[in-house]
């Protein structure tokens, strides 16, 4: 296996995992993207430039998540490690439940696919299995790869996913607070066991959500109810809990985006309800926080690579 080029540009979307009841399985691509340029160098050095999110905090050496993903993908296909120059232009917020780490991992793996003379060896399924080894769960990586909405699962072979046919007219809006919540902290508050009736409730709602997304948007409010994680996490993301309560009381299908604290709304004609891209005045102060909004109409494409 060898590289056919020494430069690629990767574009990868933000994602929302869970979508309410589909814990660690359902996910959706959002209308915010990171762009990463990667050069394979003849020397062993690693050079990283970061613009936007994480410019002040992310490492600029082999420990950077994109570099680690490139190394893992190179090992998987048997390509020797090279020096790297990476320019990351980050727009996906960090620590907000929008899949920034999954985007970095997918970007690194996709960069290797783009550099290869035989990119088909890193097809979507292979990319997902590699990404899930980093993430531990596939609900963010799957929509980052396929785009749109996806259902993902794990078995003895690793991670798998299938894209969903989302009906025309279904839109998303993500409300992003100033507050940050590390995924590890959000997972730490979840119990090891849940009551059987809560598990049964979520199975029904997750199945209903697939139907709602595929052509029954009038069922989205009921389909986005959850008893497995959002209630347990309310104590560590009070602003998100307050925003979800505010929106659902007004009939809007609102859920925690991934591990939070961003809030995702899935529905139709969302702009008419004030869910437009920008800083909606009505949201100011809800949960004691300030909020920005990203509204997306139509399906968001998954990761793309340009040579």
From TrEMBL:
Sequence similarity: Belongs to the GHMP kinase family. Homoserine kinase subfamily.
GO annotation terms (biological process): threonine biosynthetic process
Record keywords, A-Z: Amino-acid biosynthesis, ATP-binding, Cytoplasm, Kinase, Nucleotide-binding, Threonine biosynthesis, Transferase
Subcellular location: Cytoplasm
Gene assigned in the entry: thrB
Lineage: Bacteria, Bacillati, Actinomycetota, Actinomycetes, Micrococcales
Name this protein carries in UniProt: Homoserine kinase
E.C. no: 2.7.1.39
GO molecular function, one term: homoserine kinase activity
Domain GHMP kinase C-terminal: 226-267
